[in-house]
Design brief:
alpha+beta
Length: about 475
């Protein structure tokens, strides 16, 4: 029986280790249904592509460094997958969760000790004194004797039969470790989601900075054009001042965009949980392959894989085992014992031994056991109701993620169309103003519309990636992407 229990303990430890170290939960979701591809970088106009290439594919970041367990050189991470790997190694909340699981595994060992023999040894040297009366008649004198006395020995006790009470206790502790491991998985999923949000937010702010830089460059060219036309008497002074206002507004937006990038870097650093500076570049991967998942599939995955539900199921198993153990308190238990002692005033000591067994049964405990069982049953009911609430919350989270994914998909299509039209409108307005048939106000309106459409397209791509990340979190299932 002890061997079976120890095997169960080691199996539970290995399962917990796999849950905490595995980078993904299960196989990726296939992409059934109609084909849909969010627009790629090649789909946007060439002028915007040149602006991105001018700034390069990556922006150097100085983030707090990575405390890897081995003193090896840190390779600069570039992808989302690498950032997640860093967070899983370094984030303090995951370290705290792992320590909690380890503490639970030690409690399993404590519970198993109740099935094993309890052996103790003792050694006791004493200095003793005795006194008495000696003599006859009137000649009576007191005698005093002082001597050393030694006692040493061993004792052993073993539970022989307790109707499975200790075994139920072990089962309860093992189930509680399972619950802790699922809680650790929940914390891991939260960390991964925060990394994804921070990563994509940094990508979006970088692209918006490119938009701001491109707008400032175009505003400078428009100012130069207005100044040239003013110099030859083909434009009023108003065009120049209006261009200067547009340039100032663009530069202000540029400053805001730079600050947004810096803030996004700080947020990503915090999400990674690193503490020492290390430079790395991140690859722009806002575009992603299509994701199609119907509600029934998503709910089935969530109900089967969400660690919150699995933790509550393990907590329910814990309470059931505790209740079974408490009921055994009404029954007797049999304990065997053996001792072997040596004692005397001088060596060699005299030896004695005894072997026996005892039957213990509580006849009356003031209702303690009954109250403990009642408390455990009430807690079990609370866990079951909490599981139902969690199930409903997960269903809501899955449905919201699917709705937001559909919204983000449509937003990309509309935003790309608006971006193309705004680019075309800006080119036409620029040509009309250069030829003297259009007003500068038309050109500034077209520039404002183009900048807004460009930013809307970037925001739509960001929303799509966040919607995919939320769906992954809701279903506890990775979705294949280009990361």
């Amino acid at each position: 029986m002890v061997g079976v229990v120890l095997n169960r303990v080691e199996t539970a430890a290995r399962i917990a280790a796999r849950r905490t170290s595995s980078p993904e939960h299960g196989a990726p979701i296939a992409a059934p249904g109609p084909s849909f591809a969010p627009p790629t970088a090649e789909a946007v106009p060439r002028a915007r592509g040149r602006a991105f290439r001018r700034r390069g594919a990556a922006v150097a970041l100085v983030l707090a460094g990575v405390a890897f367990p081995a003193p090896a050189e840190v390779v600069a991470p570039r992808t989302l997958r690498e950032c997640i790997a860093i967070a899983l190694v370094n984030h303090p909340s995951l370290k705290a969760a792992a320590a909690t699981v380890d503490a639970g595994q030690q409690r399993v060992r404590q519970a198993v000790s109740g099935y094993l023999p309890q052996i103790s040894a003792n050694f006791s040297p004493n200095r003793r004194q005795t006194s008495g009366l000696a003599g006859t008649g009137t000649d009576i004198s007191a005698t005093v004797r002082t001597f050393d006395f030694y006692t040493t020995g061993f004792s052993l006790s073993q539970v022989l039969f307790d109707f499975g009470r200790v075994l139920n206790g072990i089962q309860a502790v093992i189930a509680s470790v399972d619950a802790l491991a699922y809680d650790q998985a929940t914390q891991r999923e939260t960390v991964v989601l925060n990394v994804k949000r921070s990563f994509f937010n940094l990508l979006a702010t970088r692209r918006l900075l490119v938009v701001a830089d491109e707008t400032v460059e175009q505003n400078r060219k428009q100012l130069e054009l207005a100044q040239e036309k003013l110099n030859v008497g083909l434009a009023p002074r108003f065009d120049v001042t209006q261009a200067e206002v547009q340039l100032a507004n663009g530069e202000l937006n540029q400053v805001t965009a730079r600050n947004a990038v810096a803030l996004a870097q700080v947020t990503l650093r915090n999400a990674l949980g690193v503490t020492e500076p290390v430079e790395f570049d991140i690859v722009d991967t806002l575009e992603t392959p299509p994701v199609e998942l119907n509600e029934a599939q998503a709910l089935a995955l969530a109900y089967d894989r969400r660690s919150e539900l699995l933790s509550l199921r393990a907590q329910e198993a814990t309470k059931l085992a505790e209740i079974a153990a408490l009921y055994k308190d009404y029954l007797p238990n049999v304990t065997g014992s053996a001792t072997y002692n040596w004692s005397g005033t001088d060596y060699p000591l005299q030896d004695t031994w005894n072997v026996g067994a005892s039957v213990n049964m509580s006849l009356f405990s003031g209702g303690l056991t009954t109250a403990q069982i009642g408390e455990a049953k009430a807690t079990l009911n609370s866990i079951r109701f909490s599981a139902e609430v969690t199930r409903q919350d997960i269903a809501l989270e899955v449905r919201e993620a699917l709705v937001r994914l559909q919204e983000a998909r449509e937003s990309i299509r509309v935003a790309e169309k608006g971006f193309r039209r705004a680019r075309e409108n800006l080119d036409l307005a620029g040509e009309r103003y250069a030829q003297g048939v259009g007003t500068f106000l038309e050109l500034t309106d077209a520039q404002t519309s183009y900048t807004s459409a460009d930013a809307s397209y970037v925001q739509a791509l960001y929303n799509y990636r966040i919607a995919v990340a939320a769906l992954e979190r809701a279903t506890a299932q990775p979705i294949p992407t280009a990361d």
